[in-house]
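Encode chain A's predicted structure.
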Amino acid sequence: MRLISAVLCAVLAAAWAQAACGDPQLKTDHPWYPGELSCSSFERLFKTQAEIYKRATGKEPATDEEKALAAWYWRNLNYAHGEEGAADYWSQGFRKGGDCKTREYWTGLFAHGFGLCGTTHAQWTAEFDKLLGHCRSRVTGVAGHNSFEVYLTGGAYGEGSWALLDHDVSTVIFSPDGSRLLSIKEIMADLKTLKNPAFKPERQRGWRVAGLHDDDAAAYSEYKVAEYLAGYAGPPPAVQLRAGESLRRYLKPGLEVAPASVPADKNAGPTFVFWGMNYKAAGIPGPERSRTWVNQPDKMHGSKKGTGWVPGQVRFANAVYTYAPDFTSAKYKEGVVDESDAQITFEFYTPYVIACTPPNDKPWGIYDEGGKNGLVLRGKMACPVSVSTDQGKTWSATANAQDGLDLTDLVKGHQQYLIRFAAGAKTLAGTGLTIRTVCQCNTAIIPRLHDGENKITFLASGLGVLAAGPNKNQAAAHLVDGTFGSKTVTLELSTPRKEVPARLYAVGWVGSGAPPAPVKYQIEYSLDTGKTWQPVVKDWQVQRRPQEPGDFWSQSFCFGDVELVAPAAPDAGPTPVRVRFSNDGGKNYLKAEAYLAYRVAQPGPVQVTFSWTEAGAPKTASHDYPAEVGKEDTTWTLSTGQKVETLWVDYAAK
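Encoded structure for chain A:
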């Protein structure tokens, strides 16, 4: 019996060793849209920005001005103006409870790829905090528009001055002699002349004034509000694929397969699953932008006419997760957070946003009851099932798990959920249980192929993410001291399966005052349940710089991250991580969030597949990557023909 047990343990251990793929990422050598590995951290992003800026201008960005222009150039090519769907940030329902803009940088870039002027520019402040330094950018309210200024130093800017850097309307404005970028205040003084794209176009160095529409620069007739630290950056986008799970990203709307909520039908039309305003441009549902540089990047620098107007120039993309837990081995445990003989609970987390097919064609039908195709079960299960979107504090009413059960309304607009089956692994084995989650994502961050030889780079960091946020109830589930709305708050996070914590990301949403008060903010963490504390950020302040308008946003964000080095206690396992937010000015925390990146216990291999067309003819190719964490793999070179159009890319954990 002992021998049999030993053999069984060895078999299970071998199965477990081939488990999850933590944070698989890819990039090609496509000149404009290489994929997420080119932009999924600020370090990678800045390198990519520098490369395209040099290709366009012939200069490596070295000065503040050049770095700012490189960042502005890249965002014009990868992010569009449009109305994203709101998250339930305040846990009172969509678009209720407070400011509902997507102010987190990576969610805005990866899950949406579009936002209104104030939304995108709020997110962008987080990038400039990394690129140029603390409080070196701000959102600025002008006439009917929220613009953006960046604080530049050196050369013509001396010790420092503000400069307009508005990507939402694709506008920067140089002085008449072309020596430097002007601030909004300076532009106002001679707006009639400076807003005209035909005025001394050579001074603009190839960057057209009002790149989207000639009238856009008229907005700089007023200068009303400043928002300092108006956005923040949480964890870089990471996907954890469990054994038996795949992620397929489609570059264009209209999934190629019939909705999983109905029987397969070869004659079924495309399925549109999204999370944003339904513009219905050219008869296709969902978010889109008709004036943008996205998908025509080669035309921006040196343009004389602007983007032009093309319905659906850029639309949403989809990220489809399909998870079939393997109950014949221990592999299924990679996705489990709680189980017994009578029940099993799986977790789901994504850097994208769970979408839906709305029940109607209203502009904001996504919020209405009856959404479909966001979360669908397949298989021969016959047990109760329920869902939680607040870390298991509350659960939905139970439903009968069955083939085609659609649970979309319970999870749409979220980035995480728990799903609990009132049956154990033995009962579910052989049922063919498959969990399909359809998300919206930005088409510009999906790897693309080009004609000829494609050099592909793969990297898996081996990380997963536990998220206490962004919604208020998701963070509140981790409160151990204080309350939201008070001047100090403490959260506690533990990895879901006792994995080793790697990095902590934390953010406090603060009522900082208008104008922001001279207050010092602290974020600290503890690995010994509060006995000792170490800084995440220390003495964080809202740093104001003249010139300023007469009014201010009354809120701001304090955020940061830190590598975690656990104390030496190998037998005890990882300890919970506590995060404490405080300040010396009595300012209240409207909300706080924390994210724990952890090391996947047993990294597994992944298969990558591309689908594309050559002159309309469909093609596919696959490549297997071993379970090597933190090592770039450049072994795959994929040869294609002519007139290549990328359809989708698929990652499948083995």
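The CA atoms of residues 490 and 580 lie 4 Å apart.
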